[in-house]
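Example 3.
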Amino acid sequence: MRYEEEDVTSVTAVQIDDLVIRYGDRTVLSHVSLRIPTGQWTVVLGANGAGKSSLLAAIVGIGPGSRAVTFPLPTTEAKRRSTFIAFVPQKPELPPGMSVAEYVLLGRTAHLGWLRSESKSDRASAAAAMTRLSVAPFADRLLSELSGGEAQRVVLARALCQDAQILVLDEPTTSLDVGRQMAVLELVRELAHTEGLTVVSALHDLTSAARYGDHFVLLGDGGVVAQGSADDIMQPSVLSRHFGATMHRIEGPDGLPVLVPIGSNLGQVAEPGSPTTRAAEKVAIDTNG
Amino acid sequence: MPAAEVTHPGARALARSFRLPLGTTGVFVGVLAAVCLLSLGTGAAGLPVWGVARELLDSLPFVAVDSGLSDRQATILLQLRLPRVVLGGMVGASLAVAGAGYQGVFRNPLADPFLLGIAAGAGLGASVAFVFDIDVALGPFGSVQLLAFVGALVAVAMAMTIGRAAPGQTASLLLAGIASASFFTALQTLLLSRDITAQRSILAWLFGTLITANWERVGIVGFYLAICGGVLFVLRRQLDVLRVGESEALTLGAQPHRIRLIVIIASSLLTAAAVSVSGLIAFVGLVVPHAVRLVAGSSYRAVVPLSAIGGAAFLIAADWLSRTVISPAEVGIGVITAFVGAPFFAVLLWRSRAGAL
């Protein structure tokens, strides 16, 4: 395979050319062109309404603009999207009467077609995915009986069972407490490394984004305003402009950056050093309105 | 089986996933057989159950047993009671499977051919064919079934269009169904007022009856049940995929729009065929799939086939009751099913409010 001989990070897994997304009169994204590198975790950033979810929906093929997205890797070219992309929505639908094992098996749908039902190898692949995410011990339980953290692992197991090479996550941590958030993000990073996955996700928490992401795409004003590595993008000067909050960057105990909002700069020029502290999320909500 | 699969802690759950539970299926078949014998043995001319069983065996090819029934008894059994029981079973199976199909594609636990107004639409179509004595046939599709099917499709379209007013809410589709059902019933009443002679027979038909059962009608419903029931049986895995919603089903590689269209057409054909021979029988499509879910889990791999068996048994039992409660007179089967179905509906509504469905 040609791309293995080159520097893996330079190979494009997802290519977006001139993507335009409109809902009625409102243009969410206009003329977006992007290349998402193979084998890395790309984090899509932006205030609420900047078009993160729309961009992810176009990539997985469920929203408008799907046609502007192509997949140049030789292993994915000209195949149906669902055979190589797995999607973890922000609020996955968990049918209450369905068991964990059944839910994970749904991941095989793309490989089965209309009429076939699961073979032994499909069941083996589901078993492997369940083991990988430590959900096998409660494979019998119904989805309605799971905690938020367990449910998130089950959804990831379904994605893994899909045998995808690209994993797309829309705010995978919104409904979890801090401990579970970190656990899920670490799990995704580990999966990405061991299974060689390309990960694309939206994340609202900037510190975890800086910690787990390899490549960053910042959306704003209907397009991509900046993209690059953590050193380029995760800078207070860049972020403050697009999140409506004055950001402060400090160095964490492990040397990785910690980004803290230290005040709103919506509608006016921010006063540096203002002691006002508002949660980043609250600011993001305000930005939308 | 490789050892790894046996020792895997999730292996048993996986092996059980999406499977038809055989023990439960056996119980369902047993209940169906018992209800059939009970119904065949009951009526104005009493027939001994043992004789009925032997006569049925005798009528199978290559089997010869002496039933001990007189010729007259045998004629009553084979020309009157048997077609009625078989037709009742097929109508019940059709309505129950159609209900399961609608519940699957609308992702609405309370969807049912009757509650969505689809049966009323089919009824109006069939009445038009009766009253105006329309006789056009399109191959195997007689004019009554054809117009009933058109009525059913118009009703589905109406329920879906009106129900879009508040998408995602269980109640809105049902309210739309109620609105369109009253509309169709009003049209039907108007139609019947023009024709006094047709009124009596159509009135009986409105509450559901199998009194006019014969082998020809068995053939008609059997044809639709075999084809459309077969389609829903084949698509039962897709119905399980649809349980996660349209957009997730799409990302999993399913084609939800196409599945939805096929299932709606198949379910509406089943409803139309059932309504055209037996009138309006309420709640079968609601009660049976839910009873199945309670005992066999909510995967459509079990719900579709078991609803067919359970629906047959339920309707044969309801028909038996309709003939016996005020014997020698008969009440409409729809009256019996409504007595069971209405309280059942209330319980389901209560539980769906609590988020248990």
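Residues 2-84+164-288 of chain A form a domain with the Rossmann fold fold (CATH 3.40.50.300). Chain A touches chain B through 46 residues (CB under 8 Å).
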